[in-house]
Amino acid sequence: MPNMNLLQPDQSRIVESLALECHISVTEMANLYEGARAELALGARITKYLHIFAIRNVLETFDRRHLFGPVGDS
Questions:
Q1: Residues 6+ positions from 3 with CB-CB distance below 8 Å
Q2: 34: closest CA among 61, 68, 66, 74?
Q3: Cβ-contact 33, 15 below 8 angstroms
Q4: Which region among 29-33, 62-66, 70-74 has the lowest average model confidence (pLDDT)?
């Protein structure tokens, strides 16, 4: 039996869950999530918890978009 602490989270389930929560397409959420995760990974020494911080950053980005509209809109 594999050690549950060594398993990485299922990114597709994370993306689907976030998309459902935010009421946007899975494709749009996948782009937001992957961008947030890639940005965090650039300077990360420990990558085990990147998904947690990526989720937080995606939700913050989505909240800002929801409140202020997409970047570049007047």
A1: none
A2: 61
A3: yes
A4: 70-74
Query: What would the pLDDT profile of 4-57 be if each residue is shown by its tens digit?
Result: 555 668 899 999 999 999 999 999 999 999 999 999 999 899 989 999 999 999
**What phi-psi label fits residue 36: left (phi over 0), alpha (psi between -120 and 50 degrees) or beta?**
alpha
d(CA 19, CA 29): 6
Q: What is the pTM of this model?
A: 0.75
The amino acid occupying position 33 is Y
Cβ contact 18:33 at 8 Å? yes
